[in-house]
Write a structure and sequence with these properties.
alpha+beta; D-amino Acid Aminotransferase, Chain A, domain 1; 3 domains; seven-stranded mixed beta sheet; 13 helices; 28% helix
């Protein structure tokens, strides 16, 4: 279905004239958050349950690019881009992170077990006690390429979804040598209550956003990324993965709304596709510990004003899987049906003197007398 056909279908459902729908979409496109037409449709903003002011709080890729420029310090960005550096920092402060077993195709300090050839990786995976193991890129995003290797079947390896592939073929497929390599980690185990909810022992993690105010960090929103069991990660992938999202009440840790998919195919408050259990009303285990962990760990990243934390809820407590320097805004907008740039978020920006920088044209060249960095959006960093 084309985008225009989707618009026609959306206009027919609530009885809205197509012209009125397109006019509203254009107002949001040329408003402060510059929401694209496809994003307008994905967030189902053609529906009548939200006011015009509520819809104006939604942002898309263009708004996110501005927020990232504002809220991520260039000097700090690498601590999020390279997961091994991130884990070293977090582990040094005593925070729980996945146990590192080895790296592949990456030059690292001697304290890290390093594998440099497909043959060495294959020998490692054949060794007794090596499996299961979780592989992911040290420099990567959106879980692309992440694989859970659960065992060997002859000359093939078995993935978490029971697929098999020849061991030599798999090892050679990782051998591009163009990045910071791969991490081999001890797989995390989900809390028993989450296993009962989802019917899978794969991780269903949290995306938690915190904001660094002049008085310290505070939680702003949290999303439960609910694994449907088909993939080795809990990533939503714009609804294509089959995984679901749940909006979390940040005071209680209770799921108050859940969704599957995006756009015209989005379903609200569906049961879990494997267990059939209701997702809304589920209270996340270890929630007070999650709050405490995120607020404390944010102090280790003063160059990230509004990071997105990926947290696994394990039997022993919460474990930090990653800290994203910002984190996508679409997850919370889908899950919560509330724009990321809501009044609360704008108030936090205003408190740091950043709200005026959201205006179009606020990115002009200007060398700050405060820190001598070029660009108006760079002036607020104290270094």
């Amino acid at each position: 279905m084309t985008l225009f056909q989707s618009c026609r279908q959306a206009a027919a459902a609530p009885g809205r004239p197509l012209a009125a729908l397109l006019l509203e979409a254009l107002r949001l496109r040329f408003g402060g958050n510059r929401l694209g037409l496809s994003e307008y449709m994905d967030f189902r903003l053609h529906e009548a349950d939200l006011s015009g002011a509520d819809k104006a709080m939604f942002g898309g890729a263009r708004a996110q690019a501005v927020l990232e420029e504002l809220l991520i310090d260039d000097y700090a960005r690498f601590l999020s881009l390279d997961k091994l550096s991130m884990y070293a920092l977090l582990r040094g402060h005593g925070f729980a992170v996945p146990a590192l077993r080895a790296t592949y195709r990456s030059l690292r300090p001697s304290s890290v077990t390093q594998l440099h050839t497909p043959q060495a990786l294959a020998a490692y995976l054949r060794a007794p006690g090596a499996l299961p193991v979780y592989l992911k890129r040290s420099f990567g995003a959106y879980g692309r390429g992440n694989r859970l290797v659960t065992g060997l079947q002859g000359d093939s390896i078995v993935f978490g979804n029971a697929d098999t592939v020849p061991l030599a073929e798999f090892c050679a497929s990782l051998d591009d040598g163009r990045s910071l390599g791969w991490l081999l980690q001890q797989p995390l185990q989900p809390h028993a209550e989450i296993v009962a909810l989802t019917g899978t022992r794969k991780i269903s993690g949290l995306r938690v956003h915190s904001f660094l105010t002049p008085r310290g960090a505070r939680l702003t929103r949290a999303i439960f990324k609910i694994n449907a069991g088909e993939l080795d990660s809990d990533n939503f992938e714009h609804g294509a993965s089959g995984n679901l999202l749940g909006a979390v009440d940040i005071d209680s840790g209770r799921i108050v709304r859940s969704i599957a998919g995006t756009g015209a195919g989005q379903r609200v408050n569906p049961p879990h596709p494997v267990t059939g259990r209701a997702l809304t009303g589920f209270v996340l285990p270890h929630w007070p510990a999650v709050r405490e962990l995120v607020l404390d760990a944010h102090r280790a990243f003063p160059g990230f004003i509004c990071p997105g934390w990926d947290i696994a809820l394990c039997p022993e407590g919460p474990v930090i899987m990653e800290v994203n320097a910002f984190g996508d805004i679409d997850l919370s907008q889908h899950a919560c049906r509330r724009g990321f740039l809501d009044d609360e978020f704008r108030a936090l920006l205003a408190e740091r003197g950043l709200l005026p920088l959201l205006r179009p044209g606020a990115a002009g060249l200007h060398r700050s007398p405060r820190n001598h960095r070029l660009g108006r959006r760079k002036h607020h960093w104290p270094w």
